[in-house]
Each structure stands twice: as C-alpha cells, then as structure tokens.
Amino acid sequence: MIKMIMHGCNGAMGQVITGLAAEEKNITIVAGIDPQDRKNDSYPVFSSLEECDVPADVIVDFASAKAVDGLLDYSRDHKIPVVVCTTGLSEEQIKKIEETSNHVAVLRSANMSLGVNLLMKLVKEAAEVLAVAGFDIEILEKHHNKKLDAPSGTALALADSINEAMDQEYHYVYDRSQVRKARDRKEIGIQAVRGGTIVGEHDVIFAGKDEVVTFNHTAYSKAIFAQGAVSAAKFLAGKGPGLYTMKDVIES
Ligand SMILES: NC(=O)C1=CN([C@@H]2O[C@H](COP(=O)(O)OP(=O)(O)OC[C@H]3O[C@@H](n4cnc5c(N)ncnc54)[C@H](OP(=O)(O)O)[C@@H]3O)[C@@H](O)[C@H]2O)C=CC1
Ligand SMILES: O=C(O)C1=N[C@H](C(=O)O)C[C@H](O)C1
C-alpha cells in the first residue's frame, strides 16, 4: 500500500483527493497538512509539514505557492518524492524544483488532466504550421472567483509549449490597456477571466487572415485533476531522483 501525505488537505482539491483516495485500493492518505488543522475522520491533520512525523512514500501538493519552498526542503530532507500541483510559482521556485530533483523524485505539472496534457502536444504541432504561416496566437483562460494566481499555470504551460516549438522566439503580453500600437507578430497574448464556479477553461486561438483555429479544453469537475494527481503519486512513489512530468505518467 502506497502511503501518501496530502499537502493542502482542507482545500478544494485536497478534499476531492481525500474522497477519491478513500476508494483506491493501493494508495492511502496517512497524513494531511493544512494551516487550519481541522479534524478529519480518515487521517491525522498537522498544521505544518515540520510537525508531521508520519512515514510516507509520496507527497501530493495542492496548497499555496508560499508553501512550496518548505515543501521542497521537507521532500529533499526526508527523501519523500513529491508531486507539485500548486501554481503561481516564481522563477526561483521553478529553479528550486529542478535543483531538488537532483536529490529526490519531483513531478511538477500545472494541470493534471489527460486532456490538457494532450493539448500541450497538439498546440505545439499546430504552432509549427500556423505560427510559421503568420497566424497570431492568443490564450484565454477562465477560472472560478477563488483562484489566487493569474494567468493560470496551465495558460503559461501552453504558451511555453508553443514557444519551445518556436525556438523561444515569442514573448508574452498580459495587459494591453496601456498599449497604443498594433500587436507584435512574435507575441502570445494571455488573458484571464475570473468568475463564479468555473472549474477551468482554456482556449488557444490561432488567428490568421480570414480563418481562425481554436483549441479548447473545458474542465467540468475537479475530479479530472484529482485522478491525474493520484496516478502521478502512484507513479512517483519508489522512484529515484529526477524531474518527471505528466507525460511520463501517461506513457507509463
Ligand atoms: N495542477 C493542477 O492540475 C491543479 C492545480 N491547482 C492549484 O492547486 C492550488 C490549490 O488549489 P485549490 O485546492 O483550489 O485551493 P484552495 O485555496 O481551495 O486550497 C489550498 C489549501 O492549502 C492550504 N494551505 C495554505 N498554506 C499552506 C501550507 N503552508 N501548508 C499546507 N497547506 C496550506 C490552504 O489553507 P488556507 O485556506 O487556510 O490558506 C487551503 O486549505 C492552487 O495553486 C491551484 O492553482 C488546482 C487545481 C488543479
Ligand atoms: O486553480 C485552479 O482551480 C486550477 N488551477 C490550475 C492552473 O492554474 O492552471 C489548473 C486548473 O486549470 C485549475
């Protein structure tokens, strides 16, 4: 049985994963971490990782960007593989993830769903044809009114995927409110909408002369992220140091 620590266990994603893990046969949550250590019938909850002395095989993280540095230190010091799903990370934190992966297995993904991970590949292929033909690229993302970071980690990952295929020639534009000139050919515009209970929607728009190609992914429930996270946890438990991605999980 794989023993998992749920980092951010009282949050929206933490609760969905708690429900899902209860039905899983070969993985169980042995401890939860959340600043408000609300009682839980399924496992003990600690207000910080430092207080947690429960042995585990893997940590799954859906918490806060502010908590990611401490999470990586804990994972490295205790040699427990970690699945980092929290978004809104700084460049320094992304570097720290890479550095930590020299010592312990780390998987970071801004989106755990199968559909978005396929989309990463599809937009790359589309860009190789459409961007080269002069189509402009825009990304529009929509999320619920509780989301703290903008643009979404997924929107940035989609832009990075396209930019990788384009030899990093593109730059990202998040706000045109002060701009008084036509858009640059080598920009990817990234816009965020926040409202209500929208689970997560991403449009990648390739706009050319007299034609537009739009790739859309719509999440109808958080269960798709939870399922991906549990699959990633099963994949990562027992793995040696290294930086893994959802591609590794999907292809395993
Ligand atoms: N990769 C993916 O597929 C997905 C990623 N996400 C990302 O996951 C993160 C969490 O999302 P969501 O569950 O909706 O957010 P919530 O705000 O609902 O939950 C986050 C939880 O983490 C807790 N938390 C805050 N600080 C710490 C800490 N130091 N240690 C442990 N727990 C802490 C919060 O407590 P408190 O409320 O007291 O601050 C809260 O209970 C976000 O960054 C989001 O963008 C979300 C969905 C999918
Ligand atoms: O905060 C969310 O809810 C989500 N966050 C992730 C992101 O920032 O891309 C993934 C998903 O879209 C839901």
The main sheet comes to: 7 strands, parallel
Low-confidence stretches: none
The strand order across the widest sheet is 3-2-1-4-5-6-12
Give the names of the bound compounds: NADPH dihydro-nicotinamide-adenine-dinucleotide phosphate, the ligand O=C(O)C1=N[C@H](C(=O)O)C[C@H](O)C1
CATH architecture of the largest domain: 3-Layer(aba) Sandwich
Q: Give the overall silhouette.
A: elongated
Count the beta strands. 12
CATH names the topology of the largest domain as Rossmann fold
CATH class of the largest domain: Alpha Beta
SSE string, helices as H and strands as E: EHEEEHEHEHEHEEEEHEH
Q: Which structural category fits the helices and strands?
A: alpha/beta
Helix fraction bin: 25-40%
- Count of DSSP-assigned helices: 7
Question: How many structural domains does the protein architecture include?
Answer: 2
Mean pLDDT: 97
Q: Could you give me the name of the CATH homologous superfamily of the largest domain? A: NAD(P)-binding Rossmann-like Domain
Rg, alpha carbons: 19 Å
Strand percentage: 25-35%
Distance between the termini: 19 Å
Function: Catalyzes the conversion of 4-hydroxy-tetrahydrodipicolinate (HTPA) to tetrahydrodipicolinate.
Subunit structure: Homotetramer.
Main location: cytoplasm
Subcellular location: Cytoplasm
Could you give a short description of this structure?
The chain has seven helices and twelve strands. Helix content is 33%, strand content 26%.
